[in-house]
Structure formats: C-alpha cells, structure tokens
Specification:
single chain, 17% strand, 15 strands, alpha/beta, five-stranded parallel beta sheet, globular, 408 residues
Length: 408
Amino acid sequence: MQYIERELERKFLHMNTVFKAVMVVGARQVGKSTMLRRLAQREGRQWVTMDDQQTRELAKSDPKLFFQTFKPPLLIDEAQKAPELFETIKILCDNTDQRGLFWLTGSQSKKLMRQAGDSLAGRICVLRLYSLSQRELLGIRPEAELNFSFDAMQARSKLFPPNDVLDTFEHIWRGGLPDVQALDEEQLREYFNSYIETYLMRDAVDDNGISDTEGFRKFLRACAAFSGQLLNYNDLAVSAGVSGVTAKDWVRVLQSMGIVQLLEPYSNNELKRLIKTPKLYFCDTGLCAYLSSWTGRDVLMNGAAAGHFYENYVVGEILRNYAYARESVNICFYRDKGQKEIDLVIEDGNVLHPLEIKKGSAPDKRLVQTFGVLAGTTKQMGKGGVICMTQAPFPIDENNCYIPSNIL
C-alpha cells in the first residue's frame, strides 16, 4: 500500500524543535511506526525496534550499553517493551541542550504513559495518532484551520469532492486502520477478528491483568452497541455479565488502549441542571462495526444504528482535526436534565461553537433553536450549524449553516 501522509507529521516536527524527546502513542496498527520510520529515513536518523528480541534484551539488561551501541539522535519503536530505557533517556536529555534527541513510539497504555511521565516529565512531548481520517485518505490538506462560518465552510468545500452517502458509509464501515483499506469483505472480517485476538485480548491480559477474557470480549461488543450514547455502566455490566465496578474499570482499560473515547458533557457554573454523564465513542468506526456484526456498508447504512454510527464518525473527524491542529479547544456536548441536547460544543477560549449532527441531507432548520440554551453563559456565541449529508454549505441564519460532513 502506498504511504498516506499523516496530518500529525506537521505537529510532530514542530514539537521536535522544542522538546528533547517526542513520543507518538495510539491504538495498535494506526500507523505510528510507519509514520516515524518514514520521517527518520528522510533525515537519515537511525531507528531501532524493541520487537527484536536480541535488541530488547540488551535494552532491558544494560541501557547504557544500548545507547553506546545505538547512539542518539534515535528512533525507538515500541518503547513500552523496554521501560528500563526511560531513566537513561532522562540522563542523556539532561546532559545536552540538543532538541529532538529521541523519537519514541508506543502502543497506548496506562503503563507506558505512567513510565514516560515519571521519568521524562518536562522533557517529553506526547502526541496521539488516530487511525486515518477522511482528509488523509483523500490526500486533502486544508491550509486554513477549521472555521464554522458559512464563508469559511464554502471556501473549504471547494477542496473536497461532493458529499456522497455511499462513500461516507464505506469509510464508516471500513474504518481508518491503514492495513484494511484495500481488503475485501471476507479479508476485512478476518483482519478484525485477528486484531481483537492478537492485539486487544493480549494487551488486556498482559498489560491490564484481565483474566476473564470471555467477559472482556462480551464487554467489547456491548461497548460497540452503546457507541454514540450516554455511558451507562449498569447497562454495559448487564450486557457483559460483569459487575458495575468491573465495567468502570474496563472502560478505563479501553480508553488507555486507544479503543474508545469519552466525550465529557459541557460544564458551566452559570447553567443549572446539567448532566454529568459522558458519551462513549469508538476511536475507529470500522472496529465498532465489526464488533456490532454489521457485515457490509449497505447493511449498516440502512440499519437501525446508522444514525449512531454517523454521529460517531463525525465526532471522530472533529477529534482528529483538533488533535493535529495548531489551536487547542475543548470538545464536549450539551445535555441538561430537561433533555435539551447539543451534539457537539467546541469551546474555543471564550467562544462556543454549537453543532448538531444529523444523517439526512436536509435536516429541520429548527434544530439550531436549541443552541439558545448556551445564551445563559458569559461565553460568546460563535458560528455553528448542522453537520449532515448536505451537498454544499448552506446558510440557516446569520450564525449557523448546514455543513457537509465530508469537509470536516
């Protein structure tokens, strides 16, 4: 498969000029090693992988000799397999002013984040890579940051092909893992089956000490069934046949593995009666579709869960965009005890951008009336709208427009 340029490359290289060590984490098989090896090759940087048993044993038994053998600047792949290196990396970082001395990759885990944080605090920048976004698959790199005004959306839409529901649900059903992009349906099923058994179950047992593997498999499927919905630990626990305490622990495990992401509700002391329950989303919709037994694009697109999957897809594209962007925002949703809800609220400093997500091509304009609930805060109301399958951006009122989901 031809290499697909990753949006994180810009941010990674930018951080490399400031930090002595930069680490890329993420779920298994999202393309961390491929991206960094390509960047290392471009600048002639030596790289070494901890997947190699002999190299790993040297790193674990004699870190000083390891760094005499493999001299920085260096790329260390699968760094979580040799945590003994971190203390020596700390010493080497402290003995030089050189930036970008160490590049590290690691499959996302609580253990790795704790080890890196304890040893390399203040010396390391940790960046997260997701599976492929729609923009990356299309090879489109908008220069302008995401802006929800009608004029900005109109300009952005000129870079993209027409919004097509078949293409959208093909991406949703297949997901963004690089290795699945050219697979047929039979191959895709076997890939995800192997992915779960080879990576997820092994990490659950080895890194997180989970012994009830059958219960954890059921729990994975239960999470997929509840994707895009408010997180109810009791319902998850009942579906998987485990306790509520175990359900909470296992959600944290899936978060630490980069499999699911929790979107927190909007919080503001000026607004009363806000709920505190987060929503659960899968980081890759293809894995979620496999776990939910959706056997093809058309079956999923016409099924009862199509709306939830579409919402999961849109939220995922937004998360990816801001994870790689120059600006930092708070991404959340709004829901109060009166059942008023806004699917996404982008909090950019003192400005709130409210967004609804609907699968249709011409959703009801009255959806934006709910945005008025945010007027009770001292925050400024920014541009927003309804993200949907519309062919082109179209104004709803002076602050909101219909936004084609494929241009995010």
